[in-house]
Amino acid sequence: MGKPVIYITRKIPDDILQPYQDSFNFRMWAGVDVPVPRDVLLREAASADGILCLLTEKVNREVFAAANNLKIVANMAVGYDNIDVDAAREHNVVVTNTPDVLTETTADLTFALLMAAARRIVEAEKYISDDRWKHWSPYLLAGSDVHGKKIGIVGMGRIGEAVARRAKGFGMTILYHNRSRKNQTEQELGVFYTEFEELLNKADYVVSLVPMTDETKKMFDRKAFQKMKSTAIFINVSRGGVVDEGALHDALTENEIRGAGLDVFENEPIAADHPLLQMQNVVCLPHIGSASIETRTKMLKLCLDNLAAVFDGDDPITPVT
Predict the structure, then answer these.
(1) Per residue in 261-311, pLDDT tens?
(2) Of 166, 239, 249, 258, which one is the catalytic site residue?
(3) Is 287 a catalytic residue?
(4) Is the distance from CB of 233 to CB of 118 less than 8 angstroms?
């Protein structure tokens, strides 16, 4: 019996694959920054025993119907809204993700984005690069303090807890909202459970770390932004679909909130002429929450270890299904 065929939807370094070469026959899309075309994915899936994919790939019923030999889809992300989990179950396909290994790195980025938006760091860098810095004045590019303020974390999962630990170091009051209350986290980190609307009313920084579900879709709508302080800054490092981007733009334009920091968008990559990109009080990043060399390597290795476990007849390490 030949080695299982694993199709990888983006080019990854050979040295990461090398330890697994004896176990698998790898086929890989050659693009580094370009997603695999849909027709290529469907064609490759037809003969694949396993798929290692990114969030950019929609692994839906069409893919599962085409892939008669498929045993596992290893998703290189914590979220898996790009995969039709119900269809996977119907076709007896295991789905795995990559939790834990990216928690601290994503929390670093979340807090960095919060700091950048609060202290107008990107705007200040552009001020110099545009050769506009001619004089110093007391309120030149004055931003908002972070230390001692209230942060409201919506979604107190692993990453939310890691962000809370960072906020604690800044002497912040930490509010959180979650679908279930976390008593142990409250005791360990000194965080306060708060209903969603109350959190919006009280927080100086509202941080979205919720998964993308039917319940969270566009939960940050115009009503939500109107409940925030006029001095509040909104941070999203979860999924773009949890935000009504038009409502966010309106809230910023009408000074209902002070600013925003966004790592994710409803449609990615975001169009260059998107209204949010034209706003000075918005810091936008290209979905790089877990993008450190160390963490991305750990994520890939976890995907490969999940593949190895399944084809060795063992339970997957981090199963979704």
Answers:
(1) 999 999 999 999 999 999 999 999 999 999 999 999 999 999 999 999 999
(2) 239
(3) yes
(4) yes
